[in-house]
């Protein structure tokens, strides 16, 4: 009768009733999620935390980049207020919401792209 054993029964018997086999099937998914977390999610959370700290510390004279791509200089920034007054051109001031700033530009003023020496 041994030749008439079904393949499913033979596979189950060969495993010896290993209870951890279900866990082993999910191990690659858990590993992929772990790699995804440490390569994508965690660095982005740290970057957002750093940006939030920079925006909270923005002060008069800082150069900032708005979400619309406008580089501006901060003219008025009150602690606790969500509004900041920035100058986008000489004598052109606008009020923006602090959370719409995407970057605080540090360092010296970059040279214009059209300048040729």
Describe this structure in words.
The protein is α+β, with helices and mostly antiparallel strands. It has a domain at 57-105: SH3 type barrels, CATH 2.30.30. The protein is built from two helices and five strands. It has a five-stranded antiparallel β-sheet with strand order 4-3-2-1-5. A hairpin with a 2-residue loop joins β3 and β4 (92-97). The mean pLDDT is 82.
Secondary-structure map:
Blueprint: H1 7-14, H2 21-56, E1 63-66, E2 71-77, E3 83-89, E4 92-97, E5 101-105
Number of helical elements:
2
Strand content: 15-25%
Rg from alpha-carbon coordinates: 29 Å
Question: Which H/E pattern describes the elements?
Answer: HHEEEEE
* Low-confidence runs: none
How would you classify the helix and strand content by structural class? Answer: alpha+beta
Main-sheet strand order equals: 4-3-2-1-5
Total E-strand runs: 5
CATH class of the domain at 57-105: Mainly Beta
Shape: rod-shaped
- Specify the CATH architecture of the domain at 57-105: Roll
**What is the rounded distance between the termini?**
92 Å
User: What is the helix fraction of residues, given as a range?
Assistant: 25-40%
Mean pLDDT: 82
CATH topology of the domain at 57-105: SH3 type barrels
Main sheet?
5 strands, antiparallel
